[in-house]
Specification:
The protein is mostly beta strands. It is about 5% helix and about 30% strand. It is globular.
Length: about 170
């Protein structure tokens, strides 16, 4: 497992560490990282999160505490990606500006969802499997589809996040 300049909180569990790529990021205590995950530099993952296999968390992403990232979730960090500059040279890290993305506390993102750069996913929100999130998701909203649209509210069902949070903070 390439781990370069990574800050790991207490009791972080990395499933199959030889199959994970972490560099320049921080991961909060009690978080679990599945196999075939990449977390790039500058990312911050909160405490007690789950990041499932085959997910990609690129530079510029902040994930708060108690967030679920299901299998195959993809984040982006560039609104206008290009391979080359106007002169035909390959773009490098210096040729674009990272656009930050925020996933707030207790949110959950379903398998194969794509999260475009610059959005905020609200506290307790639920992003359905396969959704493409191209704009902010309100707190406690349930969104699905391409593009993702609000279809409900997570407060209509118990998520258990508040109970877990209270126990963890005690």
């Amino acid at each position: 497992m390439p781990i370069n300049n990574v800050r790991l909180g207490q009791d972080v569990r990395i499933v199959h560490p030889e199959l994970v790529n972490l560099y320049g990021c921080s991961i909060g205590g009690g978080t679990q990282i599945g196999p075939f995950v990449e977390i790039q530099k500058g990312c911050r993952i909160g405490a007690r999160c789950k990041v499932s296999s085959h997910s990609f968390i690129c530079s510029g992403v902040t994930i708060e505490d108690e967030v679920m990232i299901a299998h195959g979730v993809m984040f982006t960090n560039d609104l206008f990606p290009r391979a080359t500059n106007d002169d035909g040279s390959l773009q490098t890290e210096q040729d674009w500006q990272v656009v930050p993305t925020l996933v707030k506390r207790c949110a959950a993102i379903g398998s194969n969802a794509t999260i475009l750069a610059g959005v905020t996913i609200g506290e307790g929100a639920l992003v359905g499997a396969g959704a493409v999130v191209s704009r902010d998701v309100p707190d406690f909203a349930i969104v699905t589809g391409v593009p993702a649209r609000v279809i409900g509210d997570t407060r209509a069902r118990s998520t258990g996040c508040d109970e877990v949070t209270q126990e963890a903070r005690a």
